[in-house]
Each structure stands twice: as structure tokens, then as C-alpha cells.
Amino acid sequence: MSKKQCPWCVGDELYEKYHDLEWGVPVFDDKILFEFLILETFQAGLSWITILKKREHFRKAFDDFDVEKIAHYSEEKIQELLQNPGIIRNKLKVRSAVTNAQAFIKIQKEHGSFSNYIWSYVNHKAIQNTVKDYNKAPATTPLSEKISKDLKKRGFKFVGPTVIYAYMQAVGMVNDHETSCFRHQEVSFT
Predict the structure, then answer these.
(1) Catalytic pick from 15, 23, 48, 117?
(2) Is residue 129 part of a domain?
(3) pTM
(4) Which UniProt keywords apply (predicted)?
(5) The domain containing residue 176 runs over which residues?
(6) Would 9 be classed as within a structural domain?
(7) Catalytic position from the list 40, 119, 165, 178
């Protein structure tokens, strides 16, 4: 008998693997936090599965999400990215990756790490929600609105409350696995 998963991932092997191994697991490593931030900003207006299918292309195109390298991308590199069919070639999103890398580094310098900054919003402990039906889970919360507002003030782009809530779910700041999902309990103890 197979384990019950959140229904949003069922039926696609890549989606199921992401759900089972990554989604909702608390992430404190700045490199991974940056990767998810960039991927979530590219996801704005698109489905997450679209981004997941292109994730390896993004890693290669964006120097394995090396924040220092991305912060110093030249116009030539930006134009190269805009020609790369393996990623989402949205001019504003590509340029925002550079801007966001620069803002990310400023936060690291100010707070010691981006992890210290972002996790301080939840007192460094994941919020354990009791989602019974993922379709009824919120797309934004007052907290995602607060974080979004602060990130925008710090110069980040494509970080609206919906993107930030999806980010919070992805990096485990909130556990939104359905209560009937086998990962709900597992993630709550990580």
C-alpha cells in the first residue's frame, strides 16, 4: 500500500519526488534559500511544475545559484540568459535575479545570514498548520504580506505576498502538508 500524499503532487513523478523529499522541509542553508527564492520569483504567474522541470537548466544557467556571481552579472551575461531556452526568458525576471542577489547579500551582511533574517519572522521554528484540504489553504497570509513588504523595501523584485507564501511553504517555514499526508507528521519533527 502506498503512502498518502498531498493531492497536488500525485501523478507526476518529479512532483511527487519534490513533495516527498523537499517541500516543507525546513531549510536554513543560505545557498538553498537563495535558490528557492530565485525559483519562486521565476514561478510568479506560472505553475511550480513548470519551474521544477527546468530546475536543472536554471542551476546550470545561473552558476548553481552562486549569489556572489549572480550579483555581478554583466549585461552580456543577462543577454545570454535571455537567449537560453532552458529557463524562463522573462526579461524582468532575469534582471530581478541580479537585483535580488545584490539585496540578498546586503541582508546576509546585516543579519549574519539570510537564514537568520528570514527565519526570525517565525522565531526560527516552523509554523505547524493543520491543512485538511490543500485547495482551501491560503495563498497569502498577514505574515507573507509583512515579509513581502520588507523585502520590497530592501529592493527585492517579484516578491509579492503569494510568491513569499509559496516560498515559506517550500523552505519549511510553514508546514502546509495536508494532515492526512504521510509527510505532515514527518516534516513537523524535522
Answers:
(1) 48
(2) yes
(3) 0.95
(4) Glycosidase, Hydrolase
(5) 26-188
(6) no
(7) 40
Structurally, the chain folds into a number of domains equal to: 1
Rounded-to-integer distance, Cα 187 and Cα 128, Å: 9
Contact 152, 106 (CB under 8 A): no
Domain at 47, CATH number:
1.10.340.30
Return the closest-CA partner of residue 165 out of 132, 120, 118. Answer: 118
Give per-residue pLDDT as tens, 54-103: 999 999 999 999 999 999 999 999 999 999 999 999 999 999 999 999 99
3-class state of residue 182 by DSSP: helix
58 lies in a domain?
yes
Give the tens place of pLDDT for each residue, 141-180: 999 999 999 999 999 999 999 999 999 999 999 999 999 9
Whether residue 21 lies inside any domain: the answer is no
Q: Which residue has the cell 507573507?
A: 144
Determine whether 76 is an active site residue: no
| CA–CA dist 44, 103 (Å, integer) | 19
